[in-house]
């Protein structure tokens, strides 16, 4: 009989933590402050949305009437990877709404593929750019459930190129010219994410899409810019934000 009571006591003692209410993680106290800071690491995938000129298929001739490139079949853009690092500044408006900005240094190439009637003329053109993104976003959060809360985020951002090949093709033949983008442009952003609370910090996995408002193509009279009426930049970004 004593052994039975002993076993019952041991089982009750071992099972007690399962029935006890767990204290939510502190999360470094970020939610208890109106103003807080953090940093982010991001994977970036970018591609162009292309509007072509009505006569984009026509062969390109230089000023002397010499054909530089033959007739085109198509112009396309595939998604190319990049990465970014940023610094977060957050300000709480209410328990469920905050405004935030994450100025980020972005390293991401963009690519265009030109397919010609003569396949030997096919060419890929990369737009190599290092830029600074400065977003201004509103974050709408759900109630906290234990160590988790979901949110939606949206707003606008401004992108400024700080390293691009604007003048490096001045001495190149027309057939070797580069496609260039404007130095700065604005975009809208929208996304979803979740806050995961740990004892001394808060981790927020987040996914966003952005699209430029205006044409990002720098117009030039050369075989690779002339067939294009408008380039819009589409970006998918997955971030891990530490706060």
Automatic annotation (TrEMBL):
Cross-referenced InterPro entries: Beta-barrel_OMP_2 (IPR025665)
Domain Outer membrane protein beta-barrel: start-end pairs: 33-216
Signal sequence coordinates: 1-20
Source organism, top-level taxon: Bacteria
Alphabetical keyword list: Signal
Name of the molecule in the record: Outer membrane protein with beta-barrel domain
